[in-house]
Amino acid sequence: MSAALEVRELVAGYTPEVNILNGVAIDVADGEIVTVLGPNGAGKSTLIKAIAGLVAVRAGQVRLFDDNIVGEQPHRMVRRGLAYVPQTHNVFPRLSVQENLEMGAVARRDAAAVADDLARMYALFPRLKERRRQSAGTLSGGERQMVAVARALMAAPRLLMLDEPSAALSPALVSLVFAKISEVRASGVTILMVEQNATAALAISDRGYVLADGRDRISGAARELLANPEVGELYLGVRKGLK
Ligand SMILES: Nc1ncnc2c1ncn2[C@@H]1O[C@H](COP(=O)(O)OP(=O)(O)OP(=O)(O)O)[C@@H](O)[C@H]1O
Ligand SMILES: [Mg+2]
């Protein structure tokens, strides 16, 4: 399989004095779902933001579909095939569902394909079609997460990065969101996601990484991570204990 994303020795941070990422290496092959796990503050969101060009990269390499993207402007990432759903504030609350989805396609000039993609989004998320005229700020948490994912997909990305897509959702909605993510992958989009919900995320993933203190500490096939006692103790057990 060819590489969608290659991250090597990535050092990044918000201020010149403090590096949050201290040498991270991850790979995502075309067509994969890869999950990044790790405790609060490990640097998971920072990793995704650094890839997206939103946090300064101080050293290391980030290659997207074989092109170096370090230093690329965030708004140009879309044209390179990268879309990103932030952990919070990921919809325009005052705009309608449909306007949110249309915003996702503003950089596209292929109007006919955009219209097709809008119809595809409503087929994937029938709930959003019902609510297309409602402002996104009035939706439930699960519906908002679907708007955020659908809006990112309206940019027609090849690689979609999701930061905690299941955060704060009920167990039934967690299952639904992960089922939708699997469908998105089946439609040909490669996925890199950050999750706290380790068991459910790994269940739909090919591979995973555990980040701690700004480094990738453990990596492997998703089923290996699920069976890894170190991972189990750190993340799976803790999460199960909370349920
Ligand atoms: N905008 C910011 N400015 C300065 N420091 C930040 C900023 N955002 C995050 N940090 C710091 O970077 C470190 C890593 O944060 P990050 O958000 O990447 O962690 P995370 O693994 O995503 O955690 P969580 O599971 O809580 O989402 C933390 O110490 C945090 O305080
Ligand atoms: Mg985070």
Summarize the structure.
By secondary structure, the protein is an alpha/beta fold. Helices cover 39% and strands 26% of the residues.
Portion of residues in helices? 25-40%
CATH homologous superfamily annotation of the largest domain: P-loop containing nucleotide triphosphate hydrolases
Residue windows where pLDDT falls under 50 for at least 5 positions: 237-243
Distance between the termini: 37 Å
Write the layout of secondary structure elements.
Layout: E1 3-13, E2 21-29, E3 33-37, H1 44-51, E4 56-64, E5 67-68, H2 74-77, E6 82-85, H3 97-104, H4 111-124, H5 126-130, H6 141-153, E7 159-163, H7 171-186, E8 190-194, H8 198-203, E9 207-212, E10 215-221, H9 222-227, H10 229-242
Parallel strand pairs: 3-8, 3-9, 6-7, 7-8
Antiparallel strand pairs: 1-2, 1-4, 4-5, 9-10
Helix pairs in contact: 3-6
Structural notes for this entry:
The protein is α/β, with parallel strands linked by helices. The strands form 2 sheets. It has a 6-stranded mixed sheet, sandwiched between helices. The protein folds into 2 domains: about 170 residues, P-loop containing nucleotide triphosphate hydrolases (Rossmann fold, 3-Layer(aba) Sandwich), CATH 3.40.50; about 70 residues, no CATH class. The C terminus is likely disordered. It is about 40% helix and about 25% strand. The chain is globular and about 45 Å long. Helix 3 runs parallel beside helix 6. The protein is built from 10 helices and 10 strands. The chain binds adenosine-5'-triphosphate (ATP) and magnesium ion. The site of adenosine-5'-triphosphate has 11 residues, from helix 1.
